[in-house]
C-alpha cells in the first residue's frame, strides 16, 4: 500500500526514528534501530532511482494539496542518484559507527549521536526530494543544525571551535539562501521550483532576480565549501568523530553541489546563469584554484584527516568544474564525480578512523609501518587512495575521464590539461601516506607494540565501499547511465509543468 | 499615517542595531536585542502580520533574551577588547549591503495589491481556505495544512536544536542537593510570581487552542508555557523547578511532540490519503482538517515547550555548577 508514497518515506522514516532513538535510552538498541531505518531508506532510494530511470520524474503532493499551493515532492534521476549515495553511505557509516564512537564519543551521548545522525539524514533526504524552494531551506536547516551537533560530539575539545566556526559560516550561508529565495518570491509569488522556473523565465535581466541568484549562489558555495569559502571545512572534518567525518565528507557537501545544480539548471535555467550572467567563468576559475590550492595544502599536512579534508575541497573543485563546462557531458561528469567521490572519501575516512581506533592518533607518524600491522585497513586506504588519484579500474578514473572528455569537447584544452596535473598532486598527498604505511619503520607511537587489525564491524562497511570503488570503475553501466540521464534531463530547456510530466502518483493510483 | 509609523519604527530599529554594534557591555546588548525584537514585532503588526508579530515578540523578545542572559551568566558580561583590526570583514559586509540595496532597485512597489506575491498563490489561500480547510485564521491554514510539511520541518529544527544543547551542555540532575538559589527571599517577587504563573499557563493554553481562530498556535503557546516555568525557576530556584518538571521528562516530551506531528502524517497514509492529508482523518473533510490541525499544533506546542525549557535548564544547570565553590 506504500508504493505510491515511496517518495515521502526517505524523509519520514528517519524523521520519526530520530525522536524514537532518544526514547530508546540504550546505545545498543538505538544503533540497531537507526541502522535498520537507514537501510530501509537506502532500499527505497535505490527503488526510486530505478523508477526515475524508467519513468522519468516522480512527484507527490504532500497533504494532498496540488502545487504550487501545497508542497510538492519531486524526484528525477539527479536527485535519485545523490539520494541513493546519501542513504547508502549513511547505512554503512552507522554500521561502522558502533565501534568507532565507543572509542570517540562519551557513552552518555550515544543515543544523541544516533538521533542527530538520523536528523541529518532527514534533512539531506528532504533537500534532495523536495520540489519547493522554501521547503529546501527548512531541510537545509535540519541537516545543518544536526551537523554542527555531530561535529561537536568528539571528545577532543578542539571540535568545539571547529563546530562553532562551521555554525557561523553555515548560518551565513543559510541566511543568504533564504534572502535569495525571498527575493525570488517577491518577484514571482511562488515557491514551487518548476513554477519559479516558469515565472523567472518571463523576466529578462531583472535586478531583484539577479541579486537573488547571487545570494543563493554565494550561500550554496559556503555550504559546499567552494574555494575561497571553504575555511570551515578542514577544521570541522579534522576534529569531528571519525564516523561523522566519513558521513559528512561523502554526503553533506555533495548535497550542496546538488542544490547548486538544482538552482542553476532547474530554477534559473543554465542559459540565463551562464550566458546572461557569465557565472561559468567565475565558477571555472574558482574550481581550478580550489583544485590546485587545496591539493597543495593537502600535501603539506601531517594530520591525515586534514589531508583528506583539503583533498575534499579540491575534489569539490572537480565537481564544480564539471558544472562550469556548460555541457551535458560536463554536468554528467560532475554528477558522476559526486557519486564516485562519496565512495572514495567514505572509505578513506573510515580507514583513518580505524587507525585512530587502534592507535589513538591520526598523525602521519601513526601510519608508519601500518601496512604490515593493519593490512586490511591499509589495503582499503590504498585502493580508495588510488581511486582519488584516478588510476584506471577505479571509480575515480571514470569520472576524471568524462571530465577531461567534456573539457576537450568544449575545446578547453588547458582545463583538460590542468585536471591531469591536479591528479599528480593527489599522487603526492596519497603517496606520502602509502609510503609511510608500507616503506617506513614504525615510529615511536607504535614501535614495539602489536597493533591488531580493526574490528570486523569497521572493516565490513569500509570494504563494501572499496569494492564499490572497483566495481564502479569496471562496470560503469549503472552509474554512467544514471548520471547521463540526469544530465540530459537537467540541460533540457525548461519543461512545461503540471501537464507533460509523467507521474506515478495520480488520483487514479491513490484510489 | 501607516507609512509614517513604519519609518519611525525602522529608524528606531536602525539606531538599536547601531548601538548593539558599538556597545561593549553585553548585558545592555541583550536588552537592546529584546527592544529590537519588539520593534520588529511592531512593524509586523503595522504590516497586518499579527501572527508573525506574536511569534517575534514571544520568541525574539521573550525566550531568546532569557537564553542570552543564561549565556552571559556563564561567559561574563564584558566583551573582550579586540585590537585586531581587519578590513576584510568590513569589506564583505559593505559588499553584502550594497548587493541588497541593488536588489531592491527592481523590487515590486511596497504594499501594492498587484504584486506577484499578492496575485499568484495567495488569492486561493484567501478565497478558498475557509471552504477547503474551514478555519477563520488563514495563516494557520497555510502553515498547518497547505504548507504543513514546512512546519513539520521547523518542529524538527527545534528538536535538532534541543539535541544539540543536550549533547553540548547536558541536563541538570534532578536530585542534586537543593542549594539555595533563585530569588526566594524577595517577598514581592514571590507573591507576584505565584499569582502570575497560573495566568501565564492559562494564556498559553488559550494561545495553543485558539490558533485556529485568531493569532496563535503551537510555537507561541510552547514558548509562553516555557516562559511560565522559567519564571518559576528564576524565582524559586532551579532545584525546585526540576522537581516539578524533571529534565528527563523534557527530553521525552521534545521527542513526543515530533512523533505526534509526524505520526499524524503516517495515520493519514494508513487512512488512504497522502502524507499529512488531514481530509481523511474524519468522515467529513473539514472536520478532518480541524482535527489534524489541532493535533499537529499540539505536537508543535509540546516540542517547542520542552525544547525551550530544556535549553534553559541546560544553561541554568551549567551556571549553578559554576557558582558552587
Number of DSSP strand runs of chain B: 0
Q: Please mark out the parts of chain A with pLDDT under 50 across 5 or more consecutive residues, or reply none.
A: 494-511
Beta content of chain A: under 5%
The helicity of chain A comes to over 70%
Which overall shape of chain A is indicated by the principal axes computed on the Cα atoms? globular
Helix and strand pattern of chain B = HHHHHHHHHHHHH
Oligomeric status:
heterodimer
Instruction: Encode the helix/strand succession of chain A as letters.
Output: HHEEHHHHHHHHHHHHHHHHHHH
Q: Nearest-angstrom radius of gyration of chain B?
A: 22 Å
Report the principal-axis shape of chain B. Answer: globular
Please tell me the overall pLDDT of chain B: 87
Strand order of the largest sheet of chain A: 1-2
Q: By helix and strand content of chain B, what is the structural category?
A: mainly alpha
Assess the beta-strand content of chain B as a share of residues: under 5%
What radius of gyration of chain A results from the CA coordinates? 22 Å
Amino acid at each position: 500500500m506504500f508504493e505510491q508514497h515511496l517518495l515521502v518515506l526517505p524523509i519520514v522514516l528517519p524523521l520519526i526514528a530520530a525522536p524514537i532513538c532518544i526514547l530508546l535510552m540504550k546505545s545498543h538498541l538505538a544503533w540497531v534501530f537507526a541502522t535498520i531505518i537507514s537501510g530501509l531508506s537506502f532500499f527505497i532510494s535505490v527503488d526510486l532511482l530505478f523508477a526515475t530511470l524508467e519513468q522519468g520524474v516522480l512527484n507527490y503532493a504532500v497533504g494532498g494539496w496540488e502545487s504550487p499551493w501545497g508542497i510538492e515532492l519531486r524526484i528525477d534521476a539527479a536527485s535519485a542518484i545523490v539520494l541513493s549515495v546519501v542513504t547508502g553511505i549513511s547505512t554503512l557509516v552507522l554500521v561502522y559507527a558502533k565501534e568507532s564512537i565507543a572509542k570517540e564519543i562519551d557513552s552518555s551521548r550515544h543515543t544523541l549521536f544516533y538521533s542527530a545522525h538520523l536528523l541529518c539524514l532527514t534533512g539531506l533526504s528532504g533537500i534532495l526530494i523536495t520540489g519547493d524552494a522554501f521547503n529546501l531551506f527548512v531541510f537545509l536547516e535540519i541537516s545543518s543544525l544536526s551537523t554542527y551537533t555531530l561535529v561537536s560530539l568528539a571528545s577532543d575539545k578542539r571540535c568545539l571551535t571547529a563546530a562553532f566556526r562551521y555554525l557561523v559560516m553555515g548560518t551565513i550561508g543559510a541566511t543568504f539562501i533564504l534572502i535569495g529565495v525571498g527575493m525570488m518570491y517577491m518577484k514571482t509569488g511562488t515557491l514551487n521550483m518548476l513554477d519559479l522556473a516558469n515565472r523567472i523565465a518571463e523576466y529578462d535581466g531583472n535586478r531583484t532576480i539577479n541579486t537573488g541568484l547571487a545570494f543563493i549562489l554565494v550561500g550554496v558555495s559556503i555550504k559546499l565549501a567552494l574555494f575561497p569559502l571553504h575555511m570551515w571545512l578542514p577544521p570541522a572534518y579534522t576534529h569531528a568523530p571519525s564516523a561523522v567525518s566519513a558521513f559528512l565528507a561523502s554526503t553533506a557537501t555533495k548535497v550542496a553541489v546538488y542544490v547548486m545544480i538544482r538552482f542553476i539548471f532547474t530554477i534559473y535555467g543554465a542559459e540565463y546563469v551562464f550566458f546572461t550572467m557569465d557565472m561559468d567563468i567565475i565558477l571555472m576559475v574558482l574550481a581550478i584554484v580550489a583544485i590546485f590550492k587545496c591539493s597543495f595544502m593537502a600535501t603539506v599536512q601531517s594530520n591525515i584527516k586534514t589531508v583528506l579534508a583539503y583533498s575534499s575541497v579540491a575534489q569539490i573543485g572537480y565537481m564544480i568544474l564539471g558544472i562550469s563546462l556548460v555541457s551535458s557531458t560536463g554536468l554528467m561528469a560532475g554528477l558522476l564525480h559526486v557519486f564516485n567521490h562519496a565512495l572514495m572519501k567514505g572509505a578513506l575516512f573510515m580507514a583513518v578512523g580505524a587507525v585512530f581506533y587502534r592507535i589513538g592518533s591520526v598523525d602521519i607518524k601513526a601510519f608508519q609501518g601500518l601496512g604490515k600491522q593493519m593490512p586490511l585497513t591499509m589495503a582499503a586506504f590504498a585502493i580508495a587512495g588510488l581511486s582519488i588519484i584516478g588510476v584506471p579500474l577505479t571509480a575515480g578514473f571514470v569520472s576524471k575521464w568524462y571530465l577531461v572528455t567534456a573539457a576537450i569537447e568544449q575545446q578547453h584544452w588547458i582545463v583538460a590539461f590542468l585536471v591531469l596535473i591536479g591528479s599528480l598532486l593527489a599522487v603526492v598527498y596519497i603517496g606520502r601516506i602509502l609510503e609511510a604505511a608500507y616503506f617506513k619503520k614504525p615510529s615511536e607511537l607504535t614501535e614495539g607494540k602489536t597493533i591488531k587489525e580493526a574490528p570486523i564491524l569497521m572493516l565490513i562497511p569500509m570494504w563494501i565501499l572499496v569494492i564499490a570503488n572497483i566495481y564502479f570503475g569496471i562496470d560503469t553501466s549503472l552509474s554512467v547511465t544514471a548520471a547521463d540521464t540526469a544530465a540530459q534531463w537537467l540541460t533540457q530547456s525548461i519543461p512545461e509543468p503540471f501537464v507533460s510530466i509523467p507521474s506515478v502518483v495520480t488520483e487514479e493510483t491513490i484510489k | 499615517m501607516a507609512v509614517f509609523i513604519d519609518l519611525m519604527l525602522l529608524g528606531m530599529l536602525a539606531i538599536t542595531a547601531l548601538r548593539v554594534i558599538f556597545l561593549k557591555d553585553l548585558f545592555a546588548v541583550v536588552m537592546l536585542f529584546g527592544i529590537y525584537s519588539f520593534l520588529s514585532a511592531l512593524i509586523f503588526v503595522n504590516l497586518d502580520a499579527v501572527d508573525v508579530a506574536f511569534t517575534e515578540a514571544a520568541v525574539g523578545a521573550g525566550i531568546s533574551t532569557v537564553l542570552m542572559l543564561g549565556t552571559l551568566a556563564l561567559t561574563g558580561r564584558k566583551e573582550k577588547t579586540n585590537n585586531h583590526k581587519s578590513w576584510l570583514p568590513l569589506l564583505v559586509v559593505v559588499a553584502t549591503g550594497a548587493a541588497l540595496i541593488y536588489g531592491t532597485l527592481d523590487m515590486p512597489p511596497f504594499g501594492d495589491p498587484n504584486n506577484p506575491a499578492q496575485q499568484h498563490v495567495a488569492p486561493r489561500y484567501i478565497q478558498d481556505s475557509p471552504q477547503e480547510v474551514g478555519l477563520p485564521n488563514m495563516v494557520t491554514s497555510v502553515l498547518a495544512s497547505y504548507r504543513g510539511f514546512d512546519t513539520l520541518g521547523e518542529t524538527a529544527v527545534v528538536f535538532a536544536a534541543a539535541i544539540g544543547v543536550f549533547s553540548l551542555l547536558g541536563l541538570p540532575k534532578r536530585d542534586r542537593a537543593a542549594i539555595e538559589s533563585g530569588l526566594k527571599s524577595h517577598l514581592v517577587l514571590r507573591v507576584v510570581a505565584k499569582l502570575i504563573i497560573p495566568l501565564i499557563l492559562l494564556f498559553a493554553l488559550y494561545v495553543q487552542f485558539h490558533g485556529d481562530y485568531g493569532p496563535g498556535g503551537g510555537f507561541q503557546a510552547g514558548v509562553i508555557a516555557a516562559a511560565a516555568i522559567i519564571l518559576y525557576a528564576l524565582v524559586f530556584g532551579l532545584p525546585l523547578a526540576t522537581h516539578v518538571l524533571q529534565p528527563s521528562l523534557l527530553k521525552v516530551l521534545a521527542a513526543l511532540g515530533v512523533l505526534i506531528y509526524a505520526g499524524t502524517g503516517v495515520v493519514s497514509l494508513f487512512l488512504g490519503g497522502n502524507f499529512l492529508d488531514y481530509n481523511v482523518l474524519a468522515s467529513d473533510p473539514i472536520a478532518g482538517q480541524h482535527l489534524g490541525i489541532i493535533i499537529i499544533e499540539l505536537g508543535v506546542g509540546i516540542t517547542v515547550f520542552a525544547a525551550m525549557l530544556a535549553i534553559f535548564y541546560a544553561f541554568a544547570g551549567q551556571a549553578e555548577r559554576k557558582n558552587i565553590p
